[in-house]
Write a structure and sequence with these properties.
Number of strands: 0
CATH class: Mainly Alpha
Organism: Halocatena marina
Helix content: 55-70%
Strand content: under 5%
CATH superfamily: Ribonucleotide Reductase, subunit A
Number of helices: 11
Structural class: mainly alpha
Order of helices and strands: HHHHHHHHHHH
Largest sheet: none
Radius of gyration: 20 Å
Shape: globular
Protein name: Ribonucleoside-diphosphate reductase
Length: 314
C-alpha cells in the first residue's frame, strides 16, 4: 500500500483551501461538449455559413482561428501532466486533474465543430476541405510559444524549484490560458456574435450561436484555470521568494509570440485591437500577481470578454 506523503493532515482534503474551492466549482459547473451544445445550434451555424457571402480566404480565417484553438487545447492536455506529477498537495492535485479533464473536453468541442460545421460548409461552398491539423494554420510564433511551454513543463521533472514552477505557471496558465485564449475569445465574439465589440474588419459579420455557446462554456472553465495559476504565482512570490522580475520577464518575452500569433499575413481582420487587448491583459496580470496584498478577481471577471455572454449563468 502506498504511504501518504503528507502526514501533517488529519483528513484527506482541506475544505477551506483555495484549490479545494476551485475543484468544487469545477464539479458544480460541469458540462458535456456533446449533450450541452445542441446539435441544432451547430446545424444553424452550418446553414448560416453556407448562405453567407464570403470568399475562400475569409472562410479560411475562421478555420485558422478554430485550428489554433483546437491544437492549443490538445497541446495543453498533453503538456500539463508534468505539473500534476510534481504537485504533492492533494487539493491541488484534484484541481489539476479536473483541469486536464476540462482541456480534453475543450478538444472534443473543437473537433466536433470542425466535423459538424467546418467541413460540410467547405464542401457545400466548393472550398478546399482542409484538416484542423494542417500546418498552414500554425505560424512560427504559435509553434515557438507551445514549444517553450512544453519545455517549461518538462523542466519540472528534473528541476522543480519555486522559480521553475512559477515559469511553468506563467507559460501555461497566464499566457496561453489567459492572454492568448482571452484574445482569441475577444476576436471570435467580435466577429461571430451580435454582442461583440465592433472591430475593424473586411469580413461581413455572421452570427454563429453554436460556436459562441461552446466558447462561453470553455471560458467558464478557463476562469478557474487562470485564477488557480495567478494564485500560485502570487503565492510563490510572497512565500517562496521567487523574484517578481522572473515573472514579468517571462510574460513579456512570451507576449511577443502572442502578438505574432494573432498578427498573421493575409488576415481579413485588423489585428491591432487584438494585440492591444493582449497587452492590456498581460499588464493587468502582472500588476495583480506581483502584489502580495492584491485580491484575485472572481472567476467571472477573470474571463470577462467585452460583449461576451455572462458566464455566471452557464
Amino acid at each position: 500500500m502506498t504511504q501518504i506523503e503528507d502526514t501533517s493532515r488529519d483528513h484527506r482534503l482541506d475544505a477551506e483551501s483555495f484549490a479545494g474551492g476551485y475543484f468544487r466549482n469545477a464539479v458544480y459547473r460541469h458540462w458535456d461538449p456533446y449533450e450541452d451544445i445542441p446539435q441544432e445550434l451547430l446545424e444553424e451555424d452550418r446553414e448560416r455559413l453556407i448562405d453567407h457571402e464570403q470568399t475562400a480566404q475569409e472562410f479560411d480565417g475562421l478555420r485558422r482561428t478554430l485550428a489554433l484553438f483546437g491544437a492549443g487545447e490538445e497541446a495543453v492536455t498533453e503538456d500539463l501532466t508534468p505539473l500534476l506529477l510534481v504537485t504533492k498537495d492533494i487539493n491541488k492535485q484534484m484541481f489539476l486533474t479536473s483541469q486536464l479533464y476540462e482541456e480534453a473536453k475543450h478538444t472534443q468541442f473543437f473537433d466536433r465543430y470542425w466535423r459538424s460545421v467546418i467541413d460540410p460548409v467547405a464542401e457545400a461552398r466548393g472550398f478546399e476541405v482542409t484538416n484542423p491539423t494542417d500546418q498552414r494554420y500554425f505560424n512560427d510564433d504559435y509553434i515557438a510559444l507551445f514549444d517553450k511551454t512544453e519545455e517549461a513543463m518538462q523542466t519540472l521533472l528534473e528541476s522543480d524549484t519555486p522559480t521553475d514552477r512559477a515559469r511553468a505557471y506563467c507559460h501555461y496558465h497566464l499566457v496561453i490560458e489567459s492572454v492568448l485564449a482571452q484574445t482569441g475569445y475577444y476576436g471570435i465574439q467580435s466577429n461571430y456574435s451580435s454582442t461583440g465589440a465592433d472591430l475593424p474588419s473586411a469580413v461581413e459579420p455572421v452570427h454563429l450561436d453554436g460556436l459562441i455557446e461552446g466558447i462561453t462554456r470553455i471560458r467558464s472553465d478557463e476562469g478557474r484555470h487562470v485564477g488557480f495559476g495567478m494564485h500560485e504565482v502570487q503565492r510563490l512570490i510572497a512565500e517562496e521568494g521567487v523574484d517578481p522580475d522572473v515573472v514579468q520577464n517571462t510574460l513579456q518575452e512570451l507576449m511577443g509570440h502572442v502578438a505574432g500569433t494573432v498578427d498573421y499575413k493575409d488576415s481579413p481582420v485588423d489585428s491591432t485591437p487584438l494585440i492591444e487587448y493582449a497587452s492590456e491583459k498581460t499588464a493587468r496580470r502582472i500588476e495583480i500577481i506581483t502584489d502580495a496584498d492584491a485580491d484575485l478577481p472572481p472567476i467571472e471577471e477573470l474571463v470577462h470578454v467585452d460583449g461576451g455572454r455572462d458566464i455566471s449563468q452557464v
